[in-house]
Write a structure and sequence with these properties.
The protein has about 425 residues and is an alpha/beta fold. The chain is built from 18 helices and 14 strands. α18 links the parallel β13 and β14. Bound molecules: uridine-5'-diphosphate-xylopyranose (UDX).
Length: about 425
């Protein structure tokens, strides 16, 4: 099938490459000519495991192309909208400027029977509004909402083998045709019995935001337990293991630490709250404000722990910050707790040296005041205190004995509870996790 993907960021670029891998003919459109040039040459403009190989294979096969020229969408049967919906400046609501601009610029090229398939995370009600816009233009094209659940770091896998598919379809005579189009796109996944939920626009939009709200709540729940553990001497990691054995609860997303960040969870819970308030149902999701507050408190807790470990004063003291990305296997620093901790320590006058295997270039652009090194040994060198804020494998694998030789102090704050506490203590470190004695 010929497919277009509008918006080639973390979501769209992966979607385009994965659809080409599945045998479709795909054109990706983006307004950023640098991004398009890289993608068209088969290079990933951001770090995502498996994506470079997929891009290269797609471009070389001739099935995958990228351009800034919207007219290239002509002839495609399904047009995916994969642009960003960031938080509005100074507000909690989502900024839909890019979604509307994408649909507006797509409309002149639509033909009868074409399907516009929204993937971006949007406030409930957006799909119905955009469907009217498409209908009013009179081309005979249709609109569906088809939310995406990919996780950065696993984006290729999640796109090729999703754990479920959700179609928010138009009602009436367009329903069957829209479903046929999406079934053709996802034929491979459907042939492997991937669960499919066929529903209306509002439900499809809500599936995405409520899934992210649930995940954020799960993380903040365990971080709230960490706060209680901290005043009682309990160990939140053991607590998570013990409650996680209950299949109704499950162990995943119960890792206490510096909290969640990224381009989705934080802004999605805020946008959901704002939308619910608009709908007169603010009280229904008022708890998400608490989820957000608990999450942000954990960043402060990590900063406070570093200050306390350095006898209440970090001024001019060397602090090594291990991690900048919001999670490992990503170079994404959007709303990153790690970068926030580094910036806060710097703001307190600490001599911060920050390291990350992938996210330094991005971090340097937004936080030029920080000192960076890609060399982990250099980061440890002379550090009075060390703080781990992204659980990259290489930090877990680093020798605590070697780290102690390099550092000037011996305090390590594990903001992700990811290190082997026993090994670090045995090597002579004062190890401090979060929510752990
Ligand atoms: C999330 C959703 O998981 C995905 O389904 C959706 O499509 C987009 O948003 P992503 O932003 O890639 O994906 O990251 P995710 O793996 O969910 O992690 C989000 C944040 O939570 C990270 O900062 C991570 O470090 C943190 N986290 C995760 C925890 O603090 N504890 C956990 O137990 C799990």
């Amino acid at each position: 099938m010929k497919i277009s993907v509008i918006g080639c960021g973390y979501l769209g670029a992966v979607h385009a490459a994965a659809m080409a891998e599945l045998g479709h003919e795909v054109v990706g459109i983006d307004v950023d000519s640098n991004k398009v040039a890289a993608l068209a040459a088969g290079r990933a403009p951001f770090f995502e495991p498996g994506l470079p190989e997929l891009l290269l294979a797609g471009v070389e096969s001739g099935r995958l192309s990228f351009t800034t020229d919207m007219s290239a969408v002509k002839g495609a049967k399904v047009h995916f909208i994969a642009v960003g919906t960031p938080q509005r400046k100074g507000e909690h609501a989502a900024d839909l400027t890019y979604v509307d601009a994408a649909v507006d610029s797509l409309i002149p090229y639509l033909s009868a029977g074409d399907l516009v398939a929204g993937k971006s995370t949007v406030p409930v009600g957006t799909a119905a509004r955009l469907a009217s816009k498409v209908a009013d233009a009179g081309s005979g094209a249709m609109l569906a909402w088809n939310p995406e659940f990919l996780r950065e770091g696993f984006a290729v896998l999640d796109t090729i083998s999703p754990d479920r598919l959700v179609y928010g379809l138009p009602s009436g005579e367009q329903h069957a045709l829209a479903k046929d189009h999406l079934d053709e796109v996802y034929a491979t996944a459907l042939s492997k019995d991937t669960p499919l939920v066929v529903t209306d626009y509002a439900t499809a939009e809500l599936v995405k935001v409520s899934a992210n709200a649930f995940l954020a709540t799960k993380i903040s729940f365990i971080n709230a337990m960490a706060e209680i553990a901290e005043v009682t001497g309990a160990d939140v990691t053991q607590l998570a293991d013990a409650i996680g054995y209950d299949a109704r609860i499950g162990r995943r997303f119960l890792n206490a630490g510096v909290g969640f960040g990224g381009g989705c969870l934080p802004k999605d819970i805020r946008a959901f709250t704002a939308r619910a308030e608009e709908l007169g149902r603010g009280e229904s999701v008022a708890f998400l404000k608490e989820v957000d507050a608990i999450n942000l408190r954990r960043r402060q807790k990590v900063v406070d722990s570093v200050v306390a470990a350095l006898d209440g004063d970090v001024f001019n003291k060397r602090v090594a910050v291990l991690g900048l990305a919001f999670k490992p296997d990503s170079d994404d620093i959007r709303d990153s707790p790690a970068l926030d901790v580094a910036a806060q320590l710097k703001g307190l006058g600490a001599d911060v040296i920050a390291t990350d295997p992938e996210a330094i270039d991005n971090a340097r652009r937004t936080h030029p005041q920080l000192a960076y090194t890609t060399d982990l040994e250099e980061a440890f060198t002379g550090a009075a205190a060390v703080v781990v804020v992204t659980e990259w494998k290489l930090y877990r694998a680093f020798s605590p004995a070697r780290a102690l030789q390099l550092a000037s102090g011996s305090v390590i704050i594990d903001g992700r509870n990811c290190l082997d506490a026993t090994a670090w203590r045995a090597a002579g470190w004062t190890y401090q996790g979060l929510g752990r004695p």
